[in-house]
Amino acid sequence: MTQPVKLIEVKEGILEDDGxxxxxxxxxxxxxxxxxxxxxxxxxAGKTSLVxxxxxxxxxxxxxxxxxxxxxxxxxxxxVANEGISAVQLRTGGFCHVDAAMMREGIAAFxxxxxxxxxxxxxGNLVCPAEFDTGAHKNVMILSIPEGDDxxxxxxxxxxxxxxxxxxxxxxxxxxxxxxxxxxxxxxRLNPNAEIFRISCRTGEGIDAWSEWLFREVCNFRNSKL
Amino acid sequence: xHELPVIDKILQVALKHARKNNISRILSIHLEIGELSxxxxxxxxxxxxxxxxxxxxxxxxxxVTRIPVSARCSxxxxxxxxxxxxxxTCCPSCGSSxxxxxxxxxxxxxxMEGL
Lengths: 226, 115
Fold this sequence. Notes:
The complex is a heterodimer.
Chain A: E1 6-13, H1 16-31, E2 35-41, H2 47-58, E3 64-70, H3 75-81, E4 86-91, H4 100-108, E5 117-121, E6 138-144, H5 151-154, H6 156-161, E7 164-168, H7 180-190, E8 195-198, H8 207-225
Parallel strand pairs in A: 2-5, 2-6, 3-4, 3-5, 6-7, 7-8
Chain B: H1 3-20, E1 26-34, H2 41-52, E2 61-67, E3 70-73, E4 78-80, E5 99-103, E6 107-114
Parallel strand pairs in B: 1-2
Antiparallel strand pairs in B: 1-6, 3-4, 3-5
């Protein structure tokens, strides 16, 4: 006798567990009054340079710690530690992204250290990090001028989940056919509320405006707790 | 690379429901995947075949329905967004930009068939 085929209604999102881990991490960080920033970009867009600039601008106002995530190596954490900032290197061991469970481990390495803001420098990649909630309170990304203005068309998910997009290497714009107006339109097509900052980590252009925005977000985060 | 963690989770969800429902062999799994996901169906199936080998889900066919991207405006209107449109999108009802994406991201296991 042939067995009848059973139809099972599953109705389960497959990233739901990750979502729960991320929500619980976000809540724990809220209790500790620690703001978590998830910084994403392609390799070479300027993530580490931006982290160093941000530390320089905000270290007098905020206690900052950094989690550096890379598939391998510890060079980024060393660069940050050289500035006298607590840094943890997360080696993802081939994984292309960081999720909230990895982040929880990374943060545990800081122990009881009081920290107003943790910056997560995610793995250099515009695809995978967009899929996984790290538990961050704000997600931001860097797009650099040499990458071109068409990237929001190629990586729509990444551009759709970021609260702010930083356009780095503005000092190169005269040497390229990068169309800022088109880029802005393409970003706002999927994410009308995204803040856009034009910066250059080489000349320092726009770093103050970015840091002011970030500081305001940290203050809003603290006030939202009360 | 994120195909593997995603596919492993699809497999774990399917195996969990197979155990609950006394299914010894999963024949097919119906997935809903947002259009913003860049996972290609043929690759999903190939990875799934590899990951599910030796489990009750070995040989199961993945059937994927793509969920279109849609947004809800602060005026209450819900509207679809075409991914290949390259210009700025405004709410077709009130013209504003104060909307948020409500569908088109993520992965959902809808149902499965088994013996």
